[in-house]
Amino acid sequence: MASPTIESILHENRLFSPADEFVQNASIKSLEEYRALAERAAADPAQFWAELASQELHWFKSWDTVLDWQPPFAKWFVGGKINISYNCLDRHLTTWRRNKAALIWEGEPGDSRTLTYAQLHREVCQVANVLKGLGVQKGDRVGIYMPMVPEAAIAMLACARIGAPHTVIFGGFSAEALKDRLNDAEAKVVITADGGFRKDKIVPLKAAVDQALADGGVPSVASVLVVQRTKAEITMVEGRDHWWHELQATASAHCPAEEMDAEDLLFILYTSGTTGKPKGVVHTTGGYNLYTHTTFKWTFDIKDTDVYWCTADVGWITGHSYIVYGPLSNGATTVMYEGVPRPSNPGCFWDVIEKYGVTIFYTAPTAIRAFIKMGDELPKARDLSSLRLLGTVGEPINPEAWMWYHQVIGGERCPIVDTWWQTETGGFMITPLPGAIATKPGSATLPFPGILADVVDLDGNPVPPGEGGYLVIKHPWPSMMRTVYGDDDRYRRTYWEHIAPINGQYLYFAGDGARKDADGYFWVMGRVDDVINVSGHRLGTMEVESALVSHPAVAEAAVVGRKDDLKGEDIFAFVILEGHYSASDELKQELKQHVVNEIGAIARPGEIRFADALPKTRSGKIIRRFLRNLASGEAIAGDASTMEDQSVLDQLRQG
Ligand code: WT7
């Protein structure tokens, strides 16, 4: 665990209080106010959330029971009727926000579009009717495989409007990965585009859909809806494929929001786990709406004058909760940007901030480290004075990157909210409330009110301040995942059985190690399981191993994370070849490309090392600890006596 980041975090003791001006305008202004809220919430979490649910959201019908908790299965607002698309759109239309910018979009080539709440509502209704016309009914799943264009958000809201759960598949995933996910969700329709712009090239999304669906690859899919984005040449399959703009042109703009049960499925989002098969994380309607609404409102201290920009892709949970649902439910202005920093425009992020007067900017440590490398000149050449608040998410941020963000981007006046959460949690779990909680570089600070978090040992006992342990949540919260899609047992095993229940209390644990300091601040230390965090994206080691082994040359593979200055972690793969293949650089390149084809570019191994054997215990388990040491060029730490064959290590060391 002793990487430079962790080392520096361990010795960090600077404290940054928000500026007076920020505090005066903040909705939660002091640590005392935060503590009062958190204590009231902890005393009766269900009551706390129920009050907020009636204050903050529109319900067609109120609930009968706030929380039905049959560990590890929770139901929130049972009997309540609600629609998240209604809360994100319709309810703003009767206020002055009707003509406020809901979505400001900037395309990579420099084209742009702004949709007011009224305009967004109109398009969502039309597309909802288009989906109905394609036979989509309440409960049917819809796959969304899109670039970062407004239609991605419109598609999500249209699905939510008619009660068709969506499953967004990140546009960087390969046809293979797309196929697996569409099949697991048994999607009826796929919404995609003729392509997207990325780094001045066209990503051929439609071609990937064609490949996934070829030869009956996804039997459930009956129709494909295609957004015209790049005008690239694509093939349209007669009877199956339809142009979005053609169907939208004749669709009615009248589509009342379906009254959904609070516990109806809102979406499935696939995330990596420690086994090969991606997990379909299930989120439902009412609790998710409430929790993303409230966390967005308080953590970003949102005002009607704010221009908020989150740089994530809608294909990840960050995009779901904090580009689309959280901001729109609050009636905020959310910016969506198709591009990423690239050689032709390395300063594009700062251009977007200047152009739209962005006030709140939310990005990831891996991006911040890349900006540091590009030099201060780029941000310094732009006017960033509109910024008032910064955020970070995805992995522990090293204090050096935090300080740069604070000084160069925030001009030392913007608080930084370091938000710890997961696909599974739906929303922020540990985060500063920026007017109330002083920050320490590298710490996500304190739990959100209503979240009972702790650091415990394997028996569920809290560990003393300063000691490392497992980060757990002790009480259900409204946006917790409900299950793994179609696999309750995997849900139970993955999240609820590693740490023993204590005093009858079940503890949610999703894989992070942490410690608390004397002030109760949480310091997340990273994953303790076989998950690699590459540029803030989770990849299961097994997933990459399965991809490697599916190549005819590979007999066995083991994959570990290796510290990387830019990406946080990089993938290091040990590969044993089938007898009749011989090691070569060409084969290494071929295997890397094979992983890209199987999963997507985010999973490309940084390094592959060929070996004759892997270090294993006598019972045949790969000793990953040793592989991690080898990958980072460190001495083998710890006892090797449990190893089956001692000579294996010598051979691996030589590479
Ligand atoms: C894992 C969740 C939640 C959106 C982004 C990733 C790591 C996330 C932080 C943070 C330290 C963090 C954890 C977590 N992580 N945010 N602020 N500080 N670690 O979502 O793909 O579900 O990954 O990302 O390891 O378990 P995800």
From TrEMBL:
CoA binds at R198, K199, D200, K201, T318, S535. Acetylated. Deacetylation by the SIR2-homolog deacetylase activates the enzyme. It is an enzyme of class 6 (ligase). GO terms for molecular function: acetate-CoA ligase activity. ATP binds at G394, E395, P396, D418, T419, W420, W421, Q422, T423, D512, R527, R538. Keywords: Acetylation, ATP-binding, Ligase, Magnesium, Metal-binding, Nucleotide-binding. The modification N6-acetyllysine is found at K621. Mg(2+) binds at V549, H551, V554. InterPro entries: Ac_CoA_lig, ACAS_N, AMP-bd_C, AMP-bd_C_sf, AMP-binding_CS, AMP-dep_synth/lig_dom, ANL_N_sf. SUPFAM superfamilies: Acetyl-CoA synthetase-like (SSF56801). It catalyses: acetate + ATP + CoA = acetyl-CoA + AMP + diphosphate. It comes from the Bacteria. Belongs to the ATP-dependent AMP-binding enzyme family. Catalyzes the conversion of acetate into acetyl-CoA (AcCoA), an essential intermediate at the junction of anabolic and catabolic pathways. AcsA undergoes a two-step reaction. In the first half reaction, AcsA combines acetate with ATP to form acetyl-adenylate (AcAMP) intermediate. In the second half reaction, it can then transfer the acetyl group from AcAMP to the sulfhydryl group of CoA, forming the product AcCoA. NCBIfam families: Ac_CoA_lig_AcsA (TIGR02188), PRK00174.1 (NF001208). PANTHER family: ACETYL-COENZYME A SYNTHETASE, ACETYL-COENZYME A SYNTHETASE 1. This is Acetyl-coenzyme A synthetase. It comes from Leptolyngbya subtilissima DQ-A4. The lineage of its organism: Bacteria, Bacillati, Cyanobacteriota, Cyanophyceae, Leptolyngbyales.
